[in-house]
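Figure 2 data, in text form.
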Amino acid sequence: MAIPATQLEKMIKTAFPTAVVEIKALVDDNDHFHVTIKAKEFEGKSRLQQHQMVYEALGATMKADLHALSIKTEVLKNNSD
């Protein structure tokens, strides 16, 4: 299975409305991505908790549609971050 980057971004922004999302394809097959997510929703959370939040937001997509997902999370401090 595969998922377009635009759909992946939409899922992330639905879960984290303040998010600034950058997605890079690791391979041109729609199931290997690196994603950087900056969101205010991560404030006060450990890196592990932030990643767990992303996994929860992506739900079954993580098991069915993505072969590999590298995640980098950061707290969004202001809209220009």
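Caption note: The chain has three helices and three strands.
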